[in-house]
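Minutes, project check-in
Item: structure for the 187-residue chain
Input as provided by the requester:
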Amino acid sequence: MSDYEESLDQLLTAPGSTPEADVENIRQACHWAIEAHLGQVRKDGCTIIEHVVAVTTNVMQFAPPDPELVVAALLHDIVENTEVPLDEVRGRFGERVAGLVDAVTNRPDEDAAASAERAAAAGRDALYLRLCDRLDGVRRSPGRGEKGRRKFLDASCAVHLALAEQHFPALAEAMRSALRQAEGAQA
């Protein structure tokens, strides 16, 4: 078992966190994500799987237990950053998970606002997943180059924080805190 699987296993087996019947499905998604993202690194310097686990942790922290949302969090970058097609996600984990993954998969022609709007149009869970993803990006933004970091933080404040404030107060508070810390890291 990898360190990532062990970290996730601790979250999954915490009292009251996830029904036992769903744990195996989540473990399969975790294992698949680890294999698919092996060796991939993000612009902020962390591995994609570190980011995936952090986003999944955010989802589990701020939302009521929802095993399919947890699976979607684990797989949210798999279509965007690997050769895995959305149909394979659908075949393995069903229509809802595939729909959530598709809703948060970045498109080459979209800016941050368009991507967030598309997630919001796909429903509350897709927007929630998009915002949990962005929260981790804000937390990791000090690892980005200055120009990219500034643009990322500005969009996070203008678009994502505003959406979080409208729909998810606890997530909005975490995002405000992360934005303050990221701004402080720039000084």
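Outcome recorded: The two ends are 40 Å apart (CA to CA).
No further action items on this chain.
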